[in-house]
Amino acid sequence: MQHPREPDPNRDVPMPPPIWNPEPIEEPEPERLPDETPLPNPDENEEPPVHAR
Prior knowledge:
Blueprint: no helix or strand
């Protein structure tokens, strides 16, 4: 039967806390001009495309 091993001070060193703080990466908002508004996909709706009206 195995006995629990004795703590070894050279082996059981706790992990040090991280020195750096990870910062969340924020995606920049894409700049859009008013005429760059995407047209709806005609395959996804029953309406005719905007340019066909």
